[in-house]
């Protein structure tokens, strides 16, 4: 049997970022304007600090303006909403991302609802979710958008393929389902209430794992030749240290057609798609050409 093909999200994301940087440069030459991304971090969650740092670096590398707002953990909702109102009104800011999770005293839904949908580059606002669900032009959540790009790059036309998505969160599972429906897949969404998950997974031409449980999806749940996208990022103990694994038992997936590794698969695509969404939001604000 041919060895399983690794879908290299890191390389794909690097190519995407180069293309975005080229576009940013030529738009600056044409219009004298640069896209700006504001990222708001409340508190000191270590993983969030790493993500926010990575987003800042990527934004600068793409030639965009990066505005970082690091607020103390005890920030009140009024203060946070005040900052969002200021960013909504700022013409230099085209994208706004509030890093989740927020400290428990803050209502994430209210905070996301306060962001101008045209600047909501993580695509979590109900306006963007509704536009995606109804097939309108939306800012699409970055992680599932990255998964779609990888699938289309690897498989080409997805029409008629059966996609099984394990996980129904608002940030991954549900928007992933909408995107795959839009690409003419037949879509099944599985969750913690689904019956006989292994059998369901074995029917998948495309298997998306977005569960948050280390290596839950075993090799014998995967149909031979299937394309597997592992969204999971789980840190597990490894001797005296720790290591990252996905939601799929990678070592058992030798009979899959292709699989994204963890790390180096979906993760890098999320930031590349954030830059893509910021560029899209910026383009929509450019004055129409005469
Ligand atoms: P959530 O916890 O919000 O959702 C997990 C989903 O998995 C839920 O729908 C849940 O079902 C389902 N689930 C949990 N246990 C089982 C089970 N035993 N059987 C079947 N379904 C189950 O997670 P997210 O969607 O936010 O994230 C999923 C994973 O993706 C995590 O590992 C996260 O770290 C990673 N992630 C990676 C990103 C990246 O950039 N690569 C970005 C975002 C997330 P139910 O609804 O019934 O509870």
From TrEMBL:
This protein's pathway: One-carbon metabolism; tetrahydrofolate interconversion
Keyword Oxidoreductase: yes
Matches recorded under InterPro entries: Aminoacid_DH-like_N_sf, NAD(P)-bd_dom_sf, THF_DH/CycHdrlase, THF_DH/CycHdrlase_cat_dom, THF_DH/CycHdrlase_CS, THF_DH/CycHdrlase_NAD-bd_dom
Subunit (UniProt): Homodimer.
Gene assigned in the entry: folD
Name under which the protein is recorded: Bifunctional protein FolD
PANTHER family for the chain: C-1-TETRAHYDROFOLATE SYNTHASE, CYTOPLASMIC, C-1-TETRAHYDROFOLATE SYNTHASE, CYTOPLASMIC-RELATED
Enzyme Commission number(s) from the entry: 1.5.1.5, 3.5.4.9
Annotated keywords: Amino-acid biosynthesis, Histidine biosynthesis, Hydrolase, Methionine biosynthesis, Multifunctional enzyme, NADP, One-carbon metabolism, Oxidoreductase, Purine biosynthesis
Catalyzed reaction equations: (6R)-5,10-methylene-5,6,7,8-tetrahydrofolate + NADP(+) = (6R)-5,10-methenyltetrahydrofolate + NADPH; (6R)-5,10-methenyltetrahydrofolate + H2O = (6R)-10-formyltetrahydrofolate + H(+)
Domain Tetrahydrofolate dehydrogenase/cyclohydrolase NAD(P)-binding positions: 141-285
Pfam family, one: THF_DHG_CYH_C
Family: Belongs to the tetrahydrofolate dehydrogenase/cyclohydrolase family.
Residues that coordinate or bind NADP(+): 167-169, 233
Function: Catalyzes the oxidation of 5,10-methylenetetrahydrofolate to 5,10-methenyltetrahydrofolate and then the hydrolysis of 5,10-methenyltetrahydrofolate to 10-formyltetrahydrofolate.
All copies of domain Tetrahydrofolate dehydrogenase/cyclohydrolase catalytic, residue ranges: 7-122
